[in-house]
Structures are given as structure tokens and as C-alpha cells.
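Case study.
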Amino acid sequence: LGSASVTLGALCGCANEGALGQSMIGQKSPGCGAGDNCPSLAFDAPIAVGASLPLDIDLSLKGGGAPPLTLVSGNESVFRAEGLTLTGVGPGVASVLITSEEDVVLDFTAIWVQQPTGLALQRRAADGTALGDVPAKLGLSKGDSVLVSVSAVSSSKQALAGTAPADWKADTDAVSIETDVPDGQARLVAHAAGKATITVSALGLQRAFEVEVAP
Amino acid sequence: VIRDKALLVAASLLGLFAAGCNPQFQALTTPPPFTEAELCDGAPECGGGHTITLTKGIALAFECLSSEGQPCTRAEGLVDNPVVAKVYDGYLTSLSEAYHDNSGDGTRGAQPRSALVILAREVGQTKLRIHSDAGSMDFDVFVHDF
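After joint prediction, the assembly is written out as follows.
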């Protein structure tokens, strides 16, 4: 039953209800800009230390309307709040208050922050949908391109929430790397037959994989 | 002796009257796993004191009610040491239940509920003083580390 609930939650992509039941708090879909109407994703993992997570807050106040909102961090040594984005600072848990003018609290929820111990790489569709893990050896044909995202994982291999600036490098010209895509992703373009080792660095961690380009 | 007894009776009645007029408080939220956010409003089950115990960084919302169970009006909280904790006004979108007291005064309609939110900012101890039209109450606030 537990695993079924988890699966349903993941499929649903629902946001979480605030402690006072007056808001739904989720994370913005990858690539979703300010003002874009994108589905909210469940907020079901700690934020990685050093990573940032834009929240998607849906107030459910009777009578409607949404006053100007300010997020308040319960403990700035755990996370900072800037606008509607939270950034992990150190391991721990603290409340984030959703406040309006004159320090009136409309709702709040708990935010966990955890130290990342590794990086996970995933292939992504153009709309951000995860297509699976990047294998240690990725085969491409000349002219192919693939979108790859990087995210942090904890020591228990749980995927952590949030994105951080990532540095992508290829050791040969067989593959070029375009980083003009959102949320720390990169587009790998197979230019010439051969091999390349791709190395990504983020949050003080590194991960490498090999790309083999067929003619 | 008679005068002393009269004073004692008067003091007891005053005490009962004061106790009867005290506002009541109840927690509205639960703490996240492995943390504390508890309010004790004088019940023997939680130690009999008026205390709030929190983990640093965690918030607790609680409701203020008159001795008759009606929402407090003009409830206001003040923390002695704002480094340790901060109190906010809380907004609740739901109304209280309508109240009928059989006194012939009719039914008192549903009212906006009265809530405060306290946020534990630093490890330590302080006092939260709450004033409202339903009466006043002081809570000892204890903040522990995570």
C-alpha cells in the first residue's frame, strides 16, 4: 500500500498542502518561467545544500484572491528565502512561512535540507520529462543530440530537490555541449565519430560518463 | 479570624472568577518528524503549565478561544526576547461554529477564528504574552536545537 501511494503521488505530481490547509505548495516544473502556467510538481524531497528551488504556491483562501506574498525562512542556516525561491544552506529542517503584508501568516510548511553526496544524470525530453538515467557509456550517431540534466542525490541515493549551476566539459571535439537550456541542463551534440568523456561539476561534486559517436 | 476567612473566601472567589475568564489556547498544527512544536494550556496531561516547546526553526499555529469557546477578538502576542522567538498574527479562512447559550439572547453567529503563529528563531527561553478581549495569558517558551 505504501509503495502504491508513493507511485500514485509521483504520477499525480500534486503539490503538498500547507500546515493550515490554506495553500498547496509545490515546485515549479523544470523550465517553467515566471508567470507561465505550468503544472506544479510534488515537493517530496529535501533540497540539496547549495541548490535553489522555485516554489509554486497556490493559495486556497475562501473568497479567492491572493495578496502579495513574502516567504520567511524559519532558520537561515538551513535555507534562505528570496522571492519565491528557496536555497539550501545547511542540513536540517525549518518552517517556511507564507506571509502577507504586516507579517500575517497565511500558511506554512516544513522544508528539509540535506547535504548532497553524489550527482545523478538523466536524459530529458524537450518538455523536461525524465527519460531515464544516463548510462556509463552513451552511444550516439553523428548529428544526434541529447538533453541531459544533473541533480543531486543523498547518501541514501534519494534524489534531492533544487538545481544548481553546473559546469559541463568534453575532452574531445566528438561532442559539443550547449548550455543555453534551463535548470542546469545541457544539450550534447554528436559532431564527429569518436569518443568523448563528458564531465559535469555541480555543488562541489563531479560525475563523468563516456559518449561514443558512431559515424 | 472572621476577617481572615472572609478575605480567604474573597480571594478564592476572585481566583475562580479569574480562572473562568482565562482564554483558552489549542494547537492547530503538528510538528514535522523528529521536531517539537507543542503547546500546553495548563492541562495536567502536559505538565499543568502554560508552555510552548519548539525546535529551532519550527513554527506552531494555535487558536485563541474565550472561556465560552468563542474566538478571541483583538488577540495580540508579544515575545519578551524576539531573538528567541517571533509571534505573528495568523489568518484562518474558516469560521467558528455558531453559538447558542440557551439564555434567550439568540444565537451568536459564526465568527472569524483567532490564530497566532509562533516561530522559534534561536535556542533559549522567553515568555510569550497574549492579550485579547477574552483575557490575557503568559506562556513560557522553550526552544531546543534540532
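Observations recorded in class. Chain B is about 15% helix and 40% strand. The two ends of chain B are 56 Å apart (CA to CA). We will return to this complex in the next lecture.
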